[in-house]
Design brief:
Transcription Regulator spoIIAA; 6-stranded mixed beta sheet; 127 residues
């Protein structure tokens, strides 16, 4: 089943983009560019569509590839936290891991992603 059939439309702006792919029971999402207030509403809609899709078509893992995500402000980071809360709410009926593959050269990622991991240690993995 492809991403388009799941009702998830990727975001493409001048400064930020998503690229999504379903691989069996895993959804892989590449985030690229700068996630700031200019793309907040786009990212919010994308993550809401992702959450709705994974409730209808459960997956075992959601992987965020962040190697080319150069900046994410706190408002956009809070959208990821909101999505993690949604995943946590379904853990009784369906187990799902949220994996973040980071760029070690971008210091902000280590600190921000560690905060997400600390918040939801049972489901958030940071690499």
């Amino acid at each position: 089943m492809g991403i388009a059939t799941l009702g998830i439309k990727d975001v493409t702006t001048d400064t930020f983009s998503t690229e999504s792919e379903r691989r069996g029971e895993t959804i892989v999402i590449w985030l690229r560019g700068n996630a700031d207030m200019a793309v907040h509403e786009h990212l919010k809609g994308f993550l809401e569509a992702l959450a709705a899709s994974t409730k209808r078509h459960p997956v075992k893992e959601i992987v965020f590839e962040l190697q080319e995500l150069y900046f994410m402000n706190s408002s956009c980071l809070s959208l990821l936290l909101r999505m993690i809360n949604g995943v946590m709410e379904t853990q009784d009926t369906h187990k799902c891991t949220v994996r973040f593959r980071s760029n070690p050269n971008l210091r902000w990622q280590k600190k921000s992603l560690q905060a997400l991991h600390s918040y939801a240690e049972d489901i958030v993995v940071v690499e």
